[in-house]
Amino acid sequence: MALETILLAVGPGDADRADELATAVVDVAKPAGATVDLAHVFTQSEYDEVLERLDFDVGVDEVHPDEVAARHATIRELAAVLDESDVEYEVHGAVGQHGPAIVDLATDVDADRVVVGGRTRSPAGKAVFGSTAQEVLLSAPCPVTFVRGSEA
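^ thats the sequence. predicted structure below, dont judge the formating
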């Protein structure tokens, strides 16, 4: 099966592993000529906080989550790497519980692969998936690549 669309889903905890995520996506997308759908998923409280922090005037206009995601630092950092690597991408934003929202986005964009990040949590260095990564791994409509962040 050819890779045409790769969904790279990030959330608030992914800023510290943006480099690893970007490298993993470029390594897969560039040789395949795939388009990357960069998606930032916010819970409602995270979304409200980001709207305030980024000075959106929510009283004047309806603000679409795609617009909020595009202005988020993690998405801008990932987009810069994709630009440098000549990988095509689109930006999406979603509001909801992280795991289900990522699975819904994967379905909506007809993703051939989903890429999510996580961290090593045990002293022995064994990767333990968080609830979001686990839900995506178990429920996504396509293969999922888990990118473990560097050790802190």
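Residues 63 and 151 are 36 Å apart (CA to CA).
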